[in-house]
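Please, structure for the following, as tokens.
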Amino acid sequence: MRIDSYEFGQIVIDGHTYRQDLLIWPGEIKQDWWRSEGHLLQIPDVFEALAAEIQVLVVGTGAYGRMVVDQELAAYLKDRAIDLLAQPTQDACRVINQLTGKRPWAAALHLTC
């Protein structure tokens, strides 16, 4: 999987354009994904991706970094030795491209603010 481009509100992955937030894990891209509490990322929001035996969760916090990772989710990941990389979505896309083929990862990508 390769992220071709990202700009506010739009991401292109392997030539396919998406205009809504995405939850990605090995072999899956969940479109129309949204969190139960808007800009707060919690365990239930990413639970299905975490079931994929990943080593890294990449969180794209939005163009301006408005989405935040709940402390309970951070602790949950730490307890399971899953690295958490949370940063603005543009930077998260670069990280995903670097990780692909090297370590199993999942991503929660907020495409707007």
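The radius of gyration is 12 Å. The mean pLDDT is 97.
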